[in-house]
Design a protein that fits this description.
By secondary structure, this protein is mostly helical. It has helices at residues 2-29, 37-54, 120-128, 141-154, 219-222, 226-232, 268-291, 297-324, 328-339, 344-350, 355-358, 376-381, 415-422, 424-433, 461-471, 477-483, 501-509, 517-523, 534-549, 560-573, 576-583, 588-591, and strands at 165-169, 185-189, 391-395, 402-406.
Amino acid sequence: MSRRNDGFEFHAGLLQRLLDIVYRVINFFERWDRLPTLLAAVNLGVFRDRLRAHNLHHTGYGIGTSSDWSAGRERWRSPDGSFNSLDHPRMGMAGSRFGRNFPLPECVPDSGDELLDPSPREISQKLLARRTFIPATKLNLLAAAWIQFETHNWFSHGLPEPGNEFKIPLQPDDDWPERQRVDGCMQIRRTLADTTPRETWLGATPTFRNTNSHWWDAGQIYGSSHSRQADIRSGTDGKIAVGPDGMLLEDPTHLGVDLTGFNDNWWVGLSLLHNLFVREHNVLCDALKERYPAWHDEELFQRARLINAALIAKIHTIEWTPGILGHPALDFAMHANWSGVPYRVMRAVLGKDNEAAHGIPGSPTDQHSAPYAMTEEFTSVYRLHPLLPDEMNVRRLDTGKQVCCELVNMQGKSTRRFMEEHGFTNLLYSFGTNHPGAIRLHNFPNFLRRFEKVGQPLLDVAAIDIIRDRERGVPRYNRFRELVGKRRVETFDEITSIPGAADKMRAIYKHVDRVDLLVGLLAEDLPEGFGFSDTAFRIFILMATRRLKSDRFFTDDYRPEIYTDFGLDWINNNNMKSVLLRHVPQLGPALEGAKNCFAPWNVL
């Protein structure tokens, strides 16, 4: 048996090396996205394995073990994400550090004046600011709300505190309000510091902590602490508390905003999705109680959470992702990630434990080359603010009448008023029939470039996005390309074919190596069908499957004893369309013929 296993591992390793060589040869002559679908999908799989081996790096946990856990609770997720790994209980828990996708010496910020060079405000004005709205015509606005709904689950650096700011010098003709200036400068608060003791091996690499659980556990709905979870629960039959109208309650500490697991940066798009999947949770509780009448409130809540979180992960994997990355190889690969390849012969050849053959859910847990964590680079590539328009048409489903509304008036403390004025059904219909913005230069929403948020100075979110990568030691665009296996560029013209963009970058940056990651990602020419850049996609290839493969509730414990047979069937047999129609059946005509609910719906 031992020799047979050794032989298998030798042959598997040899096959991997051969595939790696073939991959390098093929990609020398042709880009992956121009290959035939199956070959392109295999190519991506080989590249993902290379990234798993070389692009995961630990920064330490920076936190003690959670005390909010006891033996016997391993059947469900802890509130703060601790004990997902029973051997490494701190891994991925709320408050632990972000990891890295690059070796730590590559993640050291610029120092002194270079940290502000060139000016983030100048970049915001000349390269990012929206002049004319550029729509992403293959998507609807629900796709933009969805990714913020998901990132609220995955990461938060916490709310920056006053007293530790960057001062960004302003040009004489800058229209930034005088009352918001300090010593003639724009102020941007620094990321909340990690005050935990630093290990010597970190060197000069900065560390920051994730206030959320790192796991794909629907923490945006359920919270990342026991206290927050207690706040949202009804205490009866496992359900989340809602009002008589079936909508979430108001947060008593944050008026105008819904009481839910994570409600920072709140707006109508988030409220729609939180309310939708809270309804899904409560329906699951009813279904579980009917089948398991002896279960108490805690058991019903935790089992429903497991099922709901997995369904959300499935929707993101096989619906949202192929929607925004509309390439046949991606559609094939993302379905394979969840359900395996559709070809029986390939499944047999690859073997019963191969994740590509049978899908990641139910496969063995694997942390690859570093303990599990969200990474700073993952946070960077998911800054997709251009998806937000500055305004949208709110349509009534019953009459077809519409009114143009500004997004600035449907966020923060105005959210609940706006929801009540227009209604849950009409707003879902409106989001399904409006376009988001394209993720490109000159398409950053202007309302976010002069954004008022309670308790903070006036915000230019575009400038903040630039400074965040710099202060956190995320490599600039050209070096980032190299570190994810792409050829570096020698000139600005190699980055983009957007008219005039190369000249503007040249005037601002002087040297191509100084181009910020965000600017390069927004300028870069896209593969056919892609909604965001191929360079960003390299991190996505790695982290999209890692969020599943590292989590025992998607791997070793994705089984009936944990989820129940009913729960696994629910996940298998539902999708975004069935969720929408279950809770808002009036949307039936708008969704008729829809193959992907993140593509534009029928306008009635």
